[in-house]
Specification:
By secondary structure, the chain is of the alpha+beta class. It has 8 helices and 18 strands. Strands 6-7-13-11-12 form a 5-stranded antiparallel sheet. It has a 4-stranded mixed sheet with strand order 1-2-5-3, covered by helices on one side. A 3-stranded antiparallel sheet has the order 15-16-17, with helices on one face.
Length: about 325
Amino acid sequence: MMSSSPDPRNAASGAIERAATELATAMRGKVSVNQRLARYTSFRVGGPAAILVEPEDDADLERMGTVISGLGIETLVLGRGTNVLIADGGFPGVVIRIGRGFEWIRESGRSEVEAGGGLPLPVVANWAAKRSLTGMEFAVAIPATVGGAVRMNAGAHGSSLSEVLRTARVYRLNAGLAEVLSVDGLGMSYRQTVLGPADVVCSARFHLSPGSKEEISARMEHHRKHRSTTQPSDAPNAGSMFKNPEGRSAGALIEEAGMKGHRVGGAEVSLKHANFFLAHAGATAQDVYDLMAHVQSEVLARFEVLLIPEVRIIGAFDTTAGLITAA
């Protein structure tokens, strides 16, 4: 009698069901199944996570690593979801959003600040300002968690996190251990690090400098006003879509290519800032993806400059439009 091969989809489904059950039993934090991710991203688009986990502490991370490491399940660490585009089909594995146990901040030495990976980055900037510590002013309007900012080496106004970061404590789910990594160990460069999908930034330590509280507050207010006057807020978006090429401005190139206001479905290139794409009511993640591909193609054809996405592209998209995601 001829035997049939097992359906890999059934095997994957079985692994997900087993993981969900074991995680719910082992962890203190919340575990959800088929949780739509649009509510957790600034674009407000994207399908469900097979499993959404919100670990409360290091012990939860250790338990989670034990459960998923042997099951071959994909992982995705998600902060405030401000730098991602998640496919309409969602994510087929475990999405990790660290919980309130990682939202803390404290002094850790002279002019040093340590903060949990789940704390919003602007909170760190404001906390430092109140203590007359300078160096974090650029971060006051960056809508990211500390962990997400470390992962992407977030930056603004000519500064980036790597300039003030001393170390980051990273839990590696696949290895089941925590490591303290320096800027070099993180491989920080323009808007990227070497952190993998199963690496969770638990905390970060920043080295700042004493400064004038009045001057620090003035710089922060300038950065806030700059954001409000130059960046759109009338529809969901994910901030800068493309990295700035060496010596060039991605927004200026997109504008000069005549792409301001261009639409694909419900996605539109902002009229206020060309490197911001808006997801209007009814927009899909695929609309945004296709718009990115079209804009990238137009800029390449006109200026021979390849714009590389700054946002992370997560999940399975129809790639017919031909978006190039790496140089």
